[in-house]
Amino acid sequence: MPHTLHVELGERAYPILVGSGFLHDPAPLFPYLHNRRVMLVTNSTVHPLYGQALEGALKAQGVDLRTVILPDGEAHKAWESIERILAVMLTDHLDRKTIVLALGGGVIGDMAGFAAAIYQRGVDFIQIPTTLLAQVDSSVGGKTGINHALGKNMIGAFHQPLAVLSDMDTLLTLPAKELSAGLAEVIKHGLIADAAYFDWIAQNMAGLRALEADLLTHAVIRSCEIKANVVAQDERESGLRALLNFGHTFGHAIEAGMGYGAWLHGEAVGAGMVMAADLSARLGYIEIALVERIRATVAAAGLPTQGPGLGAERTIQLMLGDKKNEAGKIRFVLLKQCGHAFLTAVPEEALRATLQECHA
Amino acid sequence: MPHTLHVELGERAYPILVGSGFLHDPAPLFPYLHNRRVMLVTNSTVHPLYGQALEGALKAQGVDLRTVILPDGEAHKAWESIERILAVMLTDHLDRKTIVLALGGGVIGDMAGFAAAIYQRGVDFIQIPTTLLAQVDSSVGGKTGINHALGKNMIGAFHQPLAVLSDMDTLLTLPAKELSAGLAEVIKHGLIADAAYFDWIAQNMAGLRALEADLLTHAVIRSCEIKANVVAQDERESGLRALLNFGHTFGHAIEAGMGYGAWLHGEAVGAGMVMAADLSARLGYIEIALVERIRATVAAAGLPTQGPGLGAERTIQLMLGDKKNEAGKIRFVLLKQCGHAFLTAVPEEALRATLQECHA
User: Fold this and answer.
1) How far apart, in whole angstroms, are the C-alpha atoms of residue A143 and residue A109?
2) Given A156, A173, A190, which residue is the final one in a domain?
3) pLDDT (tens digit, 0 to 9) for every residue of chain B, 360 residues total?
4) Nearest partner of B246 among B227, B224, B264, B221, judged by Cα
5) DSSP B284-350
6) CA B306, CA B359: separation in Å to the nearest integer?
7) Does one domain contain both A162 and A186?
8) Looking at the partner chain, which of B93, B95, B150 has a beta carbon nearest the beta carbon of A90?
9) Which residues of B touch A (CB under 8 A)?
10) Within its chain, how far is the Cα of B157 from the centroid?
11) Which residues of A touch B37 (CB under 8 A)?
């Protein structure tokens, strides 16, 4: 039986199911598909691994199903992909009761969710995340969207899924680099909300990277609990939810500066968290010892702890384009202690010092 | 002082202000613009008439303003226009507190609202409708979106405005044909919800078409009240709101069959309401005498009372592509009496008879 946890969002509340074997025996999906036409969205990497099995199992149940297989990668997280999904839905005259299944990593989840958000002003969708990053982060919270040539994730909608199904089996085929990228968000959840969880992560890093099922299951559940709790309190990111951006203001600048795709999102967040920790210590909020523990844990996860050397000026310029900034002021999520993050503006001198120290 | 009525939607509640002189003295707008950057969206017809005056008045107040002037017409209600708006917003690094002003008819309102809905997952917008149709219909209720080559209004979002400002002065420059198109929705509001209002409309049609200010103001307020009341009870069109589609299932088929733009939306709805009335009588719900009154009132508004002769088979085929249909079944909004509409499936024979009788 899968573990189930609930994201409390009133009329938009939904369950997250964490378990294994879903994709070959998708019984937990069936209650959602009754009398509804189904649009499966996946990519060319995931389709042969899990999509075909899921299609077979659904068709054996008589589900009215069609599939769009998008090219893999962040470079395709653009309007053209949304247009491909919408064209199939319109050609098949899919109605407002249609349900969209997002089978893949965060890019697929964001795009399938956005297509669901704007098709006929909104149809339901279910997330079936196949990467650790998507399981612990992007599948939870209802953020959907695409990139624009002028900025990442700039076009989108808040659209909560009907359910999230996380199958641990999918992590067995995940490249090690992408597992590490997912661990960046796991580390983040400990740092911003639960010091004991951070300790557990630091102690069990080797086992997590060796894909020990019990450890991964615990990490997915605890990370989803933390993220779900934040989202439930601040669905539309007016306050608390910003804390989930710990490491991300730096990370987004790295991703933008290097060209999207050069660094994985989780890699940029790994280095970004070290920078945010450095800045927190520099402003007197935390001890250097904690910065070093964070640096060591990020390294143990197989993630970079330094930036790519874009330079302080260029990095600040890139941050000004980040959408979390109001009217040109850059605000950062910093740590007050392990397990406690807060949002603040920072003196530009301290920021520059961190960027230089951490080779941003 | 403008009349104010409130659309009750909980945390998304907003006021509708109906008055005159707003566009030269937009004082009612100022409270909404404090410390926010502003994106004005309008079209090439409205900009010289009202946009330049509004820009001047806002800039005189020190408002940080930029304008996108889209080409006029339903043909431009497409992703390309949204992309133009988004590119300006991104180039100017507009943040999440930005407010979008939609100055124009329904097409501008739908597009500016949709751009606001998806820019950084949603920013605020204000509707400043300049056509009767937009004032009594499209500006109220939060429907936003664009057309797709495969279907009208198929891509969009529910996104409620922060406020609606309807300036009666704008109707003085409205082409008579477009005033008639707006009157189609006014007639509809009487028919589905308020028999006394329908009687008032029928009696005052000449004065409405002669742009008597008191009559127009009353019509805009009463129509907005009726629509706002329906929307407040069913924001996401799961039931009651469907009644606002009286005449629209027929109308959409006419628009699609003739090619969008050949008939104005209100013209298609005019003929569509006569068809829906004919079908209501054919199924025994209303008397022939009421059908004749509706036909006469639609004609008096300067609207067609017959279809363009697409033929019954083609019209039914076009209806199957309409998004209100679940899994292939066509449902219609019919009248039980004047002022009382309901949603029902209908026997295909009766539908065919109506389509033939009304030259659909």
Assistant:
1) 9
2) A173
3) 788 998 888 778 899 999 998 888 999 999 999 999 999 999 999 999 999 999 999 999 999 999 999 999 888 999 999 999 999 999 999 999 999 999 999 999 999 999 999 999 999 999 999 999 999 998 888 999 999 999 889 999 999 999 999 999 999 999 999 999 999 999 999 999 999 999 999 999 999 999 999 999 999 999 999 999 998 888 777 778 889 999 999 999 999 899 877 999 999 999 999 999 999 999 999 999 999 999 999 999 999 999 999 999 999 988 886 555 554 578 899 999 999 999 999 999 999 999 999 998
4) B227
5) TSS-HHHHHHHHHHHHHTT--SS-----HHHHHHHHHTSTT-BTTB-EEEEEEETTEEEEEE--HHH
6) 6
7) no
8) B150
9) 35, 37, 79, 83, 86-87, 90-91, 93, 95-97, 117-122, 143-145, 148, 150-151, 154-158, 236-237, 320-321, 323, 325-328
10) 15
11) 327
**Cα–Cα distances in Å, from A257 out to A278, A279, A329?**
21, 20, 19
Residue A185 annotated as catalytic: yes
Which chain A residues are within 8 Å of B252, Cβ to Cβ?
A: none
Cα separation, A350 vs B67, in Å, equals 38
Beta strands in chain A (DSSP E): 3-7, 14-19, 38-43, 65-70, 99-104, 124-129, 143-148, 151-158, 163-167, 331-337, 340-345
A10: domain CATH number is: 3.40.50.1970
Q: What angle do CA A199, A202, A204 make, to 5 degrees?
A: 105
Q: How far is CA A168 from CA A5, A17, A165, A337, in A?
A: 15, 11, 10, 32
From B118, which residue of chain A is nearest by alpha-carbon distance?
A156
Contact A344, A259 (CB under 8 A): no
SS3 B100: strand
The residue written with tokens 């894909």 in the block is: A211
Residue finishing a domain among A173, A201, A231: A173
A87 vs B151: CA distance, rounded Å: 10
pTM for the full model?
0.89
- Residue span of the structural domain in which A133 resides: 3-173
DSSP secondary structure letters along A286-316: S-HHHHHHHHHHHHHTT--SS-----HHHHH
- DSSP E strand stretches across chain B: 3-7, 14-19, 38-43, 65-70, 99-104, 124-129, 143-148, 151-158, 163-167, 331-337, 340-345
Same domain assignment for residues A320 and A214: yes
CA distance A26 to A170: 14
CA B33/CA B52 separation, integer angstroms:
18
Number of domains chain B contains: 2
